[in-house]
Amino acid sequence: MKKAAIKTALCAGVLAVALASTVSAKNLGVVGTTYDIAEPDALQEIMERVEKHDWDKEFASIKPEAYRPPGLRELPRAQRTRSFLVDMTYTLDRDIPDGRGGILYPKGFTFNPLDHVFFDQALVIFDGDDPEQVAWVKEQGYLDKPGVLLLLSQGDYVAVGKQLQRAVQYADARIVDRFQLKAVPSVVAKQGRYMEVVEYEVPRNAG
After folding, report:
1. Rounded to 5 degrees, what angle do the CA atoms 36, 37, 43 make?
2. Residue 103 phi, psi dihedral angles, 5° rounding
3. C-alpha angle 162/166/170, rounded to 5°?
4. Do β-strands 82-87 and 194-199 pair in parallel, antiparallel, or remain unpaired?
5. Residue 155 · residue 129 · CB < 8 Å
6. Which end of the chain has fewer CB atoms surrounding its CB within 10 Å, N or C?
7. CA distance 71 to 76
């Protein structure tokens, strides 16, 4: 968003609050002696502060590359190639109401979402701080495959995204726990009524 647009939005927000206060006010008449207001108009003062604010400094302090989701897990590098299946069966821990005063699905109801949802994506989870893993993602051709989601266990998503010329996201704690991820790089894909996780040993460069 441009600086002018942000300043306009702030001014509009202040103006909206001021108008709302004015509309809800009641005229109670004049009580006692009246005096001229010596203080500057509050709205005018706020708008002047917005104009004087150092927006260049404000924007310079915003560093998207410093972002990390809370609870990010650091996964070790895979020591060998192996695969395992993850059962996606889920048991409800509460009743799901039907919106009409009844229960649509009771607590304890068990189901497998893969029986009801079409899932054709693959998740590639890797350490963005490990140049060999980043190179491995390139070499495996994942950048050219549709339906592949790149997830970082660690690393700068801005820098890795620029390097791969592809959007990357983070594998937060929920993803790590749900797919029982233990090491990276890992590839997660649907295998029948299960999700298959394959951990890959990436050879280390000599020297």
Report:
1. 145
2. -115, 120
3. 90
4. antiparallel
5. yes
6. C
7. 16
Contact predicate 26/66, CB 8 Å: no
- The residue with tokens 């207001």 is 37
| Mean pLDDT score, 7-32 | 42
Residue with tokens 């949802």: 117
Sign, Cα dihedral of 173, 80, 124, 155: positive
Amino acid residing at 59:
F
Query: pLDDT of 87-112, one tens digit each?
Result: 988 888 898 898 888 898 899 989 88
Mean of pLDDT values over 73-88:
94
Paired tokens of 203: 């050879």
Length of the chain measured in residues:
207
Q: Is 123 a residue whose pLDDT tops 70?
A: yes
